[in-house]
From TrEMBL:
Domain annotation Helicase ATP-binding: ranges: 103-267
Protein name listed in UniProt: Pre-mRNA-splicing factor ATP-dependent RNA helicase DHX16
Similarity annotation: Belongs to the DEAD box helicase family. DEAH subfamily. DDX16/PRP8 sub-subfamily.
GO cellular component: catalytic step 2 spliceosome; cytoplasm; nucleoplasm
Highest taxon in the source lineage: Eukaryota
GO biological process, one term: innate immune response
GO MF terms held by the record: ATP binding; hydrolase activity; RNA binding; RNA helicase activity
Covered residues, full protein: 311 to 1045 of 1045
Catalytic activity: ATP + H2O = ADP + phosphate + H(+)
Length: 735
């Protein structure tokens, strides 16, 4: 079993196998390849053999994140903490000595910006202080927003434990498709997107006494929109308290935006962190991560490790590789507990990362950006940072949105490093060169509002009666073209009329907590009498890319199982097929296991489906089934996604309107078939612009579902009529 599969394949055969290369390409970002290749000219030897079969990566120590002059005594160790009362732990947090001062400042000012190091207790403590101070009297509620669902869930669970109440009673959380609150819930942790939706039912947030916009530095689209709306509400609700909490940096911006609101700083405690860089760039950062973790495990004193990767697939792959190597090394190394954490991880698994490490063992938490500032895991001494994150990017010229693995910003890299210095002096290993850090990383991350499509948010704002979007109070305005395109798309979907006013159909679309295109698809299922099937497709699309399970040692079986679900027509029908068969099995976990389907994802799809079904009445769609006539299902999908269409040309797939080159993802059931016309659910940019979840369509359907958007002429098929050879030749000659 070679340690570096890809390299070895190259050495042996000159080129990696086609199949393997496809998987590798799909997995590794183009950015990573570029990033890795940056100063490949360097002659430094890349690896050195130290452990018998494992290779090592050489790091050089470069800089140090300064700690405090005299670091305060470290907080009690995790084990001791367990024994101490939870109240003592609360009192040990950096925010605690400032409790009275903070409450006084909140009483004195309507808007307060709160800045404090990650882990100082902002998220878990401040809402509790407000609760203790009586801000929830007379049934008033406190909202605390989080950009990430995992954070909302885990923080609410923690606070419920601290308050000694059952989660969902006094303390609860509310995230999309999952509401863990009740009438009694006065401390509401929620995603920023959920608070945005609250405006729909309660435009002045009248039942809230305090709104805390947490993790403001993340600058997610929803947080940014909240700023504008809350600032407005605060003007005519002088008794509403607004708190804006942020890890570091940029608090001046928030202060200025909120009419020079005061900034309250919670001094953090921080130990120095030594920063190490690789001598040479790493081409495969996933592999490099695995090697480095083992290296840390074997060479470094006790202390847990935190690894930053970009998403679920990567994290699962890394965990699997790590476990695999540990098994092979057996008793040669001490016990290594490998724990993943990412957005879709079920809550019982999430809780495991907070459990104390058993004596003698070492814990490795493999996380997404979530662990950068949203979650604090005790006991981390080592941070491993490959320097990437998954980011949405949007091209307002073409209207194409894609998820891309990109180098993170310097600000991000330093936040990550900071995670190593919370309990003691720590070390951060960066899997890139010091040169790359200096010259290639952006200072800060561009706010999401400037790199995403705005269809969703524009629809929401329109539903709130905000018509003049150009003059909305944005902290940073989105590009003009992006706004315009959102309006145009909503018009094409029939959500807005030609005056830019919300239509009846638009009002219904806003009712569903999903993207406008998905909403439109659900609405269209009424016309095509297939809402049962469309609900399933919508639910399965919402769980996204984590349906099939592909363990390394059973790749062939897993792929066969997947192919067995294929239905002519494309991936949406495959998803429908998987769900239907699972439902027929009585929603069995055994069935999932046998068919290499992720039970957890399916369970979630079932939840989402139920929620959407519950909303059908509100949008006046009745339950109906296509009775096996999948054309109807495909047409309903087309009615929502006619914007995302591509056709096969001589030079591969091109998007219909923008003529962008795109590719079918190798995972797709249509990868081999290459139908002439198709629609895709989303684009993912890795090595290429891949279409994920594709469906074969007929061009005539586009005229049927979107006659205002497509003209018959542009849907004419150049392949249908043979091009005169002469012209072809002349063109070539000219070329
Ligand atoms: O928001 P901020 O980063 O300032 O800190 P926090 O999230 O309120 O965390 C305060 C403390 O609570 C930290 O010591 C965390 O380790 C702990 N915590 C926890 O044990 N479990 C959670 N789910 C969240 C926080
Ligand atoms: Mg926090």
């Amino acid at each position: 079993q070679p340690a570096r599969a890809v390299d070895l394949v190259e050495e042996e055969s000159g080129a990696p196998g086609e199949e393997q290369r496809r998987w590798e390409e799909a997995r590794l970002g183009a950015a990573s390849l570029k990033f890795g290749a940056r100063d490949a000219a360097s002659q430094e030897p890349k690896y050195q053999l130290v452990l018998e079969e494992e290779e090592t990566i050489e790091f050089v120590r470069a800089t140090q994140l300064q700690g405090d002059e005299e670091p305060a005594a470290p907080p009690p160790s995790t084990q001791a903490q367990q024994k101490e009362s939870i109240q003592a732990v609360r009192r040990s947090l950096p925010v605690f000595p400032f409790r009275e001062e903070l409450l006084a400042a909140i009483a004195d000012h309507q808007v307060l910006i709160i800045e404090g190091e990650t882990g100082s207790g902002k998220t878990t403590q401040i809402p509790q202080y407000l609760f203790e101070e009586g801000y929830t009297k007379k049934g008033m509620k406190i909202a605390c927003t989080q950009p990430r669902r995992v954070a909302a869930m885990s923080v609410a669970a923690r606070v419920a434990r601290e308050m000694g109440v059952k989660l969902g009673n006094e303390v609860g959380y509310s995230i999309r498709f999952e509401d863990c609150t009740s009438e009694r819930t006065v401390l509401r942790y929620m995603t920023d997107g959920m608070l945005l939706r609250e405006f729909l039912s309660e435009p002045d947030l009248a039942s809230y006494s305090v709104v805390m916009v947490d993790e403001a530095h993340e600058r997610t689209l929803h947080t940014d929109i909240l700023f504008g709306l809350i600032k407005d509400v605060a003007r005519f609700r002088p008794e509403l308290k607004v708190l804006v909490a942020s890890a570091t940096l940029d608090t001046a911006r928030f202060s200025t935006f909120f009419d020079d609101a005061p900034v309250f700083r919670i001094p953090g405690r921080r130990f120095p962190v030594d920063i190490f860089y690789t001598k040479a760039p790493e081409a495969d950062y996933l592999e490099a991560c695995v090697v480095s973790v083992l290296q840390i495990h074997v060479t470094q004193p006790p202390g847990d490790v935190l690894v930053f990767l970009t998403g679920q697939e990567e994290i699962e792959a890394a965990c699997e590789m790590l476990q695999d190597r540990c098994r092979r090394l057996g008793s040669k190394i001490r016990e290594l507990l490998v724990l993943p954490i990412y957005a879709n991880l079920p809550s019982d698994m999430q809780a495991r990362i907070f459990q104390p490490t058993p004596p003698g063992a070492r814990k490795v938490v493999v996380a997404t950006n979530i662990a950068e500032t949203s979650l604090t895991i005790e006991g981390i001494i080592y941070v491993l940072d490959p320097g990437f994150c998954k980011q949405k990017s949007y091209n307002p010229r073409t209207g194409m949105e894609s998820l891309t693995v990109t180098p993170c910003s310097k600000a991000s890299a330093n936040q990550r490093a900071g995670r190593a210095g919370r309990v003691a002096a720590g070390k951060c290993f960066r899997l890139y060169t010091a040169w790359a850090y200096q010259h290639e990383l952006e200072e800060t991350t561009v706010p999401e509002i400037q790199r995403t499509s705005l269809g969703n948010v524009v629809l929401l704002l329109k539903s709130l009666g905000i018509h003049d979007l150009m003059h909305f109070d944005f902290l940073d305005p989105p590009p003009y073209e992006t706004l315009l395109l959102a309006l145009e798309q909503l018009y094409a979907l029939g959500a807005l009329n030609h005056l830019g006013e919300l239509t009846t159909s638009g009002r219904k679309m806003a009712e569903l907590p999903v993207d406008p295109m998905l909403s439109k698809m659900v609405l269209a299922s009424e016309k095509y009498s297939c809402s049962e099937e469309i609900l399933t497709v919508a639910a399965m699309l919402s769980v996204n890319n984590s349906i099939f399970y592909r363990p390394k040692d059973k790749v062939v079986h897993a792929d066969n199982a997947r192919v067995n679900f294929f239905l002519p027509g494309g991936d949406h029908l495959v998803l429908l097929n998987v769900y239907t068969q699972w439902a027929e099995s009585g929603y069995s976990s055994q069935w999932c296991y046998e068919n290499f389907v992720q039970f957890r994802s399916m369970r979630r799809a079932r939840d989402v489906r139920e929620q959407l079904e519950g909303l059908l009445e509100r949008v006046e769609v009745g339950l109906s089934s296509c009775q096996g006539d999948y054309i109807r299902v495909r047409k309903a999908i087309t009615a929502g996604y006619f914007y995302h269409t591509a056709r096969l040309t001589r030079s591969g797939y091109r998007t219909v309107k923008q003529q962008q080159t795109v590719f079918i993802h190798p995972n797709s059931s249509l990868f081999e078939e290459q139908p002439r016309w198709l629609l895709y659910h989303e684009l993912v940019l890795t090595t290429k612009e891949f279409m994920r979840q594709v469906l074969e369509i007929e061009s005539s359907w586009l005229l049927e579902v979107a006659p205002h958007y497509y003209k018959a002429k542009e849907l004419e098929d150049p392949h249908a009529k043979k091009m005169p050879k002469k012209i072809g030749k002349t063109r070539e000659e000219l070329g």
